[in-house]
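User: Could you check the structure of this?
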Amino acid sequence: MAREVTQEAFAAAWADGAVVVDVREHDEYAAGHVPGARLMALRTVPTRCGELPTGRPVFVICASGNRSRTAADRMNTHGIDAYSVTGGTGAWARAGRPVVTGSHEHAA
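Assistant: Sure, the predicted structure tokens are below.
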């Protein structure tokens, strides 16, 4: 079962430059995502795990936390130290934290 982190723990890690992977679909990502989040739709995770670092935590986020748990589980089986972000992008935005729009990845 995927390990989860709270929004507060994620916010602290994000502020320190954490690796963030958004596993939603392209249109969801474009509508609003955590600054610096890398788009990797859930269906592509099994074939793209090799793109992720193995020596540091990876924080996985989706809309509400369901897809991110699945993705983190898959990443963990590939040797990635992955954590699902509880509440997802929805909780992040509701807390008043920064969200960017557009289809390109943005630096934090």
